[in-house]
Records
---
Amino acid sequence: MEDTNVVFAVAVACLVAVTSTLVYFIRYLSSKPCENSQPEKNGVANKDPIGESKTIPQPKKKNVFEHKKISKSNFSHPWLSKSLKAHTGNVLDADMSSSGKYFATASEDRSIILWATSDFSTKNNTHNKGRVEFDHALRVCWSPDSKALVTYKAAANCVEVYKLTKSAEGKFSGFEVVVTFPVLHESGEIAGMGIDINGRYIMTCSTDNELVIWTLKGEVLHRMNTNMGSTHAAVLSPCGRFVTVCGFTPDVKVMEVVFSKTGSFEKVNRSFDLKGHTSGVFHVSTNTDSTKMATVSKDNSWKMFDTKIDYGKGQEPSLLFSIAFDTRGEKALIALSPDGRSVAIASSTDVFFYSGVTGKFVKKIEHVHEEPITFLVFDPSNKFLLSGGDKQVRVFHNVVGYLATIEDLEQKKRTASHTAMRDRIADQIAEAQKFLASLGEC
């Protein structure tokens, strides 16, 4: 009997032990996250591209997001009017409409955004976005009537013209392809593109020195080699008369696109050269009427030229001044304001401001963008300078332009013959000085 009780006690003990182990094992399994569990408050289960689940601690994800957000919006400067934010990819190029009312930006995010320039000095952020199907635009230009955009597509490697479409309510609804040009720049990258202000032709140029003049329908009018070794930039003057190219060689070539009195294309005429640099020229810019041209070079200088000449009579452009500028071995961009009074140079992520009248250095603004600056452009009113380099566009007040305007007005005031005129000029000076004072510059 005792043996039976002992056996029974051992059996009960074993059963209890097995049951306890089983309960513990079940609780252990239930405490582990299930593969198909939903996101929790303190841990987010995210599926990767192949469908597996990974648990990512929420605090870590939040910190990374906050860091990126701060780094993208932390830039500030007294001269900054605003930042244009809507692109999700880097902004590659931009163009101002001839009327000055609209500003277009092209981005890697396969979109082109149209901005209202009237918002540049306000808190409004009016814009319309259009898509570039299955591609993105490397270059963008407004048509003279501001009803179409000329783009250069990256993957397709060609020019494509878009008409701006409107809905039944008269609002912007997107882009409609009007014409796609044949592919000609097969080997080199695009170095420049522009459209004549009179709508007579489109210019494209590649880094392997191929310059092409097109009709607006995509027909080739002229095709030539720039003979620059490597073309860094090709710029069409705002007046539509000249095409200026610069590159590996130290001389900048200026060519005139000649049309007859009846409007038919005749030739591309070699007009004159901008001489004086001792190394390759990175970029060139022209004022509204092509009477001034500015260049920036690898030889660590930038130069201003007087190009108000009659080259047909053998006149040569004269050098107004040459200013030392350390490019730090990196490609630089230069922008000359429409009135020729202001100069801005971009090197890496920094912008430098100079007087276009004297060449005097005025201001350096550092770390304007997180990545190297891709474009610089003044608006037609000379009041703003715009730059792009990451996903945002910076809109700066052209303080240099205001200072030059005040100096010019003071000169006119001294020579004014009538009291009423002197009083009117004095009011304009006071208004400009008041604005500069609001920026801490006067």
Note: Residues 29-71 have pLDDT under 50 and may be disordered.
---
Amino acid sequence: SFEIVAALLEVWPEAVKEKDYSYFYTPLYWACRMKAQFEVVDALMKVWPEGVKEKSKFGYTPLHCACRYRAPFEVTSLLLNTWLSYKENRTKSAIMSFQWD
């Protein structure tokens, strides 16, 4: 629940960067996989927004996981907007070019 996650993050904020030994999943990845409520995902991302870029052993991000396991729309939207904020206009082809030739 949100209360448990918030309490843990208060005493051990670096916990958001921990990965399991099997698949290298972060708490954010697990939250997306288990369809955690928005408040849980938001709390994890407020502590470590860069976690949205972390990949699992198989190269999947929390956004991949949220889409695959049908996380709530608000969660998927938060992940996507955060991920895009790291990708915007860094190069002309960071995501894809929207210019027509």
Note: Residues 73-87 form the longest helix (15 residues).
---
Amino acid sequence: MMTINKTIKNKFAKIAEKIKNAKSIAIFAHTSYDPDGLGSMYGLAYFLEKQGKNVDKFVDSKICPTDAKFFDISQLCDEITRDYDLMIMVDTANVERLGKYASAFAKHNNTIKLDHHVGYHTCAKIEVVLPLSSCCEVILAYIESLGKKPDKITATYLFGGLLTDTDCFSTDTITAVSFQNACKLIECGADNVKATSMLVKSQSQAQYNLSKIVADKCEIHGDVYISSLTLKDYKKAGAQLNEDGNISNKLIYLEGINISCLIKQRQINVFSCSFRGRVGTDVSVIANKLGGGGHKLAAGAVIKGSEKSVKALVLKTIRENR
């Protein structure tokens, strides 16, 4: 069982008071989204809505069709069109990762950060960062601090985030607490079959096409696997941006590879880099050097430049920081 110390309990109490006094709340997940960020946002939002709160959800990313079957994207807001009493960012290490919403969050005088990425600078008025295997577990900890349990819908969102951020309970961030939290969510009614089938075992034809392109463009430098997807590649595959699914996770499966990077173009001269590593490596160091962040075995960064220059910079940074 994870022990929540007095300081965290006091912060959770302050957060509860802030939420109690807020009539309108905006919740943000990070750009280059993942199901943990969305699960944290959707799970917390649904929980607060059940408490009678008016909540809007924001993420500066297009959600791929397979994930959109799990997360109802019609609930997402695109533009901030009103003043909110409170803003909350989840699963986001620094405010820059909010993308086009970063400025609005940074300027707001009533902000909260709930996250599991430790070691980053303060960027909200109240912050709770717990070293758990997923941010969805931080949301669960907050709900439990109120003496409450998530309902079935909230639990399913949170379970989906926990499942995917641990790569089906296979990463080095997993502890006994991770499994205990998974058990709690299932006991609360989480639909683990739905989460697994939609978020893990689902692949569109476009995602399959992207996988083939990634394999065709791969470069192996010693124990480093690097590949890339350009806007033209997405078009050729009939895929939307962010429809690369969990391709990044699979590159590291190749025998003899200890570090992998998938470079994904997001707009002209802007690339999102997804790093993966095997036990014994720390790709978060590489991502940090490139202005990003993450965990030892899974991290990311956004880099400006051409496909060729970004690839060269990534390889240089890997060589110098491992």
Note: The radius of gyration is 19 Å.
---
Amino acid sequence: MRTPLLVTITAIYVSVFQSHLYSAEFEIPHPELKAITIDSVDTESFLSVRLDTEGNLFTGCREALFVYEANESGFAPRKLLYTFPKDSWLYDLEIRGNDIYVMTNLALYVIKDARVKREGLQPERLVWGLPDFHPHQCFHGLAFGPDGWLYMSMGDLLVWYGDFSRPDHWGHWTFFCQPDDTQVPFTGVGGVLRCKPDGSQLEVVARGTRNSCGLVFDNKWNLFTHDNDHEGLPTEFVPSRLLHVVPGADFGWPRGWMPTMTPDRKDLLVTMNQKMGRGVPVGQSYYDETYLPKQYRNSILLARWGTRALSSYPIEVSGATFKAEEQILLQGLNQTRPVGVTVGRGGRIFVTLAEMAHNEGSPVYQSDLVMITRKDDDLSK
């Protein structure tokens, strides 16, 4: 058996990247892979991460949006693009042309020309109106679909209310969107929404999730998300779920969870993996590049805060839906927890790591930005 690579770096200097104190601890199980730190900071709480087609890297944090511009030697030092209000939490980023879409916990914004401009940037609010309950149960993921619409995930804001069997658990509020503060009444829990790139025509795609965070399309335009379990009621709402999203789907929360737990229910949708255990998945991406070993192709990448793992789930057809078994790409140790993940041009994977001992509402944590690549990657080229 091959021994995983244990990475415990107290200080690292690579000529193409910056020199930083790097406190994260993790294992890279595959012997042909390595991880390199790009940045480490104790004040910004890295969360989301996205690269453009020119290799520039953008990170969303507790309040700040940063860019690391690609250059001949790797990346330039991080540069602040914009600071949102306190506790905004930039859960996901999407890029369309030169515009960057930012999903905070309470609103969707677009920052025109933020991919190429570095000063004078001003966000434009596209979708808002989500009640301010908690920075964990809120707006989360973003993904542009084949139809040109922008898809977004959100959590259930009423997890504190009722006994989870009452019909009045549903939330009722009004979303606002473009143009001109258009009102869109909403009734439900967590789910997936979509709108036009200008923030118009907001509508529901799927319902019945507790706290879906990541959202991603594969290379055939199948849409996937995941769902945080309810650790307080493990007999009913554990394990966490990996979900294939189709228009009109209802994933059962809070009336049900998965067929393996309540086999007498014929209305519950099959999940892609029934063995995820207790978990708090956060960021999500999709990998189908040829750069890393073949076992990672056509895979959902999932940053699992609870299990401290960055996991890969190769997608397999299963009847009218899909199934996917877990394989560990990066295993965090001690307090190191993956929270964000994306794929860069050429096939390298970029991950944000949070140093957290336990769950907190809106923490400032030590965080690291890491690149996973092949061991034979010559970073001087």
Note: The chain has one helix and 32 strands.
